[in-house]
Amino acid sequence: QVQLVESGGGLVQAGGSLRLSCAASGRTFSSYAMGWFRQAPGKEREFVAAISWSGHSTDYADSVRGRFTISRDNAKSTVNLKMNSLKPEDTAVYYCAAALSRQPPISLGGFNYWGQGTQVTVSS
């Protein structure tokens, strides 16, 4: 089992920044890939960013590439999402997810464990 707890969400004005963190426990953190997803009201959950077990490989949704940065600290069992130049359309509940593979799965369904989510609201 893997437990994931997100933190760092909140209310920010457009153009501002937030840093989300996800603390993992329960298994060897460095052995699995991690991802961030988000879900806005009335919409499906969508991919935001992912990172491999080593941190050497990352991937981003087109909508956030260049503005968001995913990183991980295997010594602290944490994964972070730095969000810059935030837009109102970034408003959503953000979820941390873990996959029992070293490389991120290509689909949402490939992630095995999920956190409870943290709300991010960007005002215009």
Number of helices: 0
Query: What does the overall shape look like?
Result: globular
The main pleated sheet reads as: 7 strands, mixed
Helix content: under 10%
- SSE order, one letter for each helix or strand: EEEEEEEEEEE
> Which whole number gives the mean pLDDT?
95
Our Rg estimate from Cα atoms comes to 13 Å
Strand segment tally: 11
- Provide the β-strand percentage band: over 45%
> Segments where pLDDT lies below 50 for 5+ residues?
none
Distance between the termini: 40 Å
Secondary structure class reads: mainly beta
Description of the molecule:
The structure is a single chain. With 124 residues, this protein is mainly beta. It is built from no helices and 11 strands. The chain has strands at residues 3-7, 10-13, 18-25, 33-39, 46-51, 58-60, 68-73, 78-83, 92-99, 113-114, 118-123. Strands 2, 4, 5, 6, 9, 10 and 11 form a 7-stranded mixed beta sheet that branches. The chain has a 4-stranded antiparallel beta sheet with strand order 1-3-8-7, with no helix packed on it. A hairpin with a 6-residue loop joins strand 5 and strand 6. The radius of gyration is 13 Å and the shape is globular. The chain starts with a strand and ends with a strand. The mean pLDDT is 95.
Tell me briefly what this model is.
This protein has 124 residues and is mainly β.
Annotate the secondary structure layout.
Blueprint: E1 3-7, E2 10-13, E3 18-25, E4 33-39, E5 46-51, E6 58-60, E7 68-73, E8 78-83, E9 92-99, E10 113-114, E11 118-123
Parallel strand pairs: 2-11
Antiparallel strand pairs: 1-3, 3-8, 4-5, 4-9, 5-6, 7-8, 9-10, 9-11
